[in-house]
Amino acid sequence: MEGVFTYLGSMFGGESGEGIGMVIAHLLLVMIIGLFVANRATKSLKAVPSGFQNIMEAYLGGVIAMGRDVIGEKMARKYLPLVATIGIFVFIANVIGIIPGFESPTSNINVTLVLALVVFIHYNYEGIRENGVIKYFAHFMGPVKALAPLMFPIEIVSHISRIISLSFRLFGNIKGDDLFLWVLLMLAPWLVPLPAYLLLSFSAILQTFVFMILAYVYLAGALAHDEEHATEAA
Questions:
Q1: What DSSP character marks residue 100?
Q2: Which one is predicted more confidently, 206 or 190?
Q3: Do 96 and 111 contact (CB within 8 A), yes or no?
């Protein structure tokens, strides 16, 4: 939140918390929290989980269930490390901004753009690896060869627009939440905005879910090409 004091911002980017130093500091904080949670969850694995292990297993089970309907359980498990890691990072980054004195790294377009590029590059790589370069890009031509010169640039633009959609959706929503909280804290005492924290927490979870499900959807679209061509050949 520009113009609002942040603990890490005062150390790395001035009192207002602006600058690349502030963003990097909060990204490091997100990484530390994520590694701490992962370490606690795997420190002493038990057959009957409890504590952090129970929470992490429930989360991973939820991610697999999310991907099962989109891409199938086998593929959902295969890409679980990517989607689950993104989910943990985005969730922690979103929630940090709800705490007074901290700012969400995902309220910075540079951070969300990198996340979107990771998904974009990965699903295209997997699509090419599974189907081959020719088959993968042949899908961009459309079902009618005569329309290929028209369909190919449209498909290219469509895929590139996913980067913009993923990055700006997350950035816009989290930045809006940060500004909303900033105004609320300026107008009301610290305890009065507590009900709004429930709304902001729900928004943080929702935006994390949307980013994760779209990652699965894009992976499903890239990997389905081979099956579609097999069906057409039959």
A1: T
A2: 206
A3: no
